[in-house]
Amino acid sequence: MAKIKKGDQVIVIAGRDKGKTGRVLEVMKDSDRVVVEGVQRVKKHTKVGQSQRGARTGGIETIEAPIHISNVILVDPETKKGTRVGYRTETVERDGRERTVRVRIAKRSGKDI
Fold first, then answer.
1. For the whole model, what pTM was predicted?
2. Which of 10, 16, 60, 76 is the most buried (most CB within 10 A)?
3. Domain limits at 100?
């Protein structure tokens, strides 16, 4: 189970974009990779074609490439630094039933994520 989810704010801790922060756009669980906004930008060459209205499409575009999940760390909401992720179990009452819910917490500050 990945501890980083879509929409999380992360810091890159290894690679050519080390130190950059961004929001997670996509998590690929099968290959343990994440796509982070503004990080690992590469140029993609697409074939030139025409759209329905006759406008030209294609050319060179810059997109974010996936990076390995071990090269990013979650940003602590309180200290704005990197932190590990832990879990706390709580019992919550919903619709007259008690359920146990796992809540993600920041190891650095102990606050909920």
1. 0.82
2. 10
3. 78-113
